[in-house]
TrEMBL record:
Pfam families: Transglut_core. SMART domains: TGc. This is Transglutaminase. Residues 111-178 form the Transglutaminase-like domain. GO terms for cellular component: cytoplasm. It comes from Flavobacterium fluviale. InterPro entries: CAP/Cytokinesis_protein, Papain-like_cys_pep_sf, Transglutaminase-like. It comes from the Bacteria.
Length: 326
């Protein structure tokens, strides 16, 4: 069944009011930082302005996030064609540390001046600015999930980096690289789309999409298997707090004719809920039931369901699962 006309009207309105939505999701800190110059002579001048404009460490950390996300673009060409690793020689530990610091300083200045970076540049610049305003900040390297192909994959190499900042005796999770936008494969380019959700993200959502090389967070062990085999969630899932209660596993082994039970919190019958079949046609879920603050529904696994199934709520992708035949 094709998606009703009302859903296409909603899609039109969604696109038409993108600027309005952007304005809505800006906090008071963001609104101030959005008026900052796009360029400063030095990182110290930017840090001084942030320190003077905001009184709390939390607002300063947010201001750094917002300025970087609004002004530094992801360098996709550098991601596809990474520069060769620079080697160096040293005769003492002190000389080694000086050269490492110089390489890091060069990385920071390149991101700051060129307004382009990959995740290493984003995280190094964020840490540098945080240090300048007196906030303790760490860089964390690890794995990430960004597409349906990541569900159940076997390769586990480190491919991303993010930050943690210590504010009010609590470590906050930050991914300013993802805060600036995303890669649109259909357009073949990066899309600038400020996403405040990756500042001080709820750990449950954050670690559904990130896995640290250490395998732990604040002393708690995380499961790499659960990370790799879990469903893929999207920005709107975090933004709207759509908790995926069922299925809780990203790989669904099914036979044709099976029915899969789904449960998503903070969704109701007033939402347009559908999925796309393998012909890219929208199929509205049938007979959804509102229970326990969410929506429960079934999806029949028939010949029109492809290798993946993605649930949409009001034109936004919410969660994807991988379909495997039993």
């Amino acid at each position: 069944m094709r998606i009703p006309k009302t859903a296409f009207v909603f899609l039109f309105l969604h696109i038409f009011f993108l600027n309005f939505t952007f304005a809505q999701k800006l906090s008071e800190v963001d609104k101030i930082v959005a008026k900052y110059p796009k360029s400063f002579n030095t990182t110290e001048k930017l840090a001084d302005k942030i320190e003077n404009d905001f009184n709390s460490d939390y607002d300063r950390a947010r201001a750094i996030y917002t300025w970087i996300a609004l002004n530094i673009r992801y360098d996709y060409n550098a991601y596809l064609n990474p520069p060769k690793m620079r080697g160096f020689t040293y005769s003492s530990e002190a000389e080694k540390q000086r050269k490492i610091k110089q390489m890091n300083d060069d990385l920071i200045q390149k991101a700051f001046n060129s307004k382009k970076a990959v995740c290493e540049g984003f995280t190094a610049l964020y840490q540098h600015l945080s240090t300048l305003v007196g906030i303790k900040c760490e860089i964390v390297r690890g794995d990430s999930k960004t597409s349906v192909r990541d569900i159940g994959r076997k390769t586990t190499s480190s491919n991303h980096a993010w930050n943690m900042v210590l504010i009010d005796k609590k470590w906050r999770l930050i991914d300013v690289t993802w805060g600036q936008g995303y890669y649109d494969s259909s357009k073949g380019r990066m899309v600038n789309d400020f996403a405040p959700i990756y500042f001080d993200t709820d750990p449950d959502y954050f670690f559904a999409k990130h896995f640290p090389d250490s395998g732990s967070f604040l002393g708690s062990r995380l499961s790499k298997e659960d990370f790799l085999n879990g469903p893929l969630i999207y920005n709107k899932t975090i933004e709207e707090d759509y908790k995926i209660k069922a299925p809780d596993f990203g790989i669904l082994e099914v036979r044709r004719g099976d029915k899969i039970d789904f449960e998503i919190k903070n969704v109701s019958k007033s939402n347009q809920v559908f999925y796309l079949n393998k012909k890219n046609q929208a199929v509205k879920v049938q007979n959804p039931k509102e229970k326990r603050g969410g929506l429960e529904f079934e999806i029949l696994i028939d010949n029109n369901v492809g290798d993946y199934i993605t649930i949409f709520v009001d034109t936004n992708s919410i969660v994807s699962f991988k379909i495997l035949p039993k």
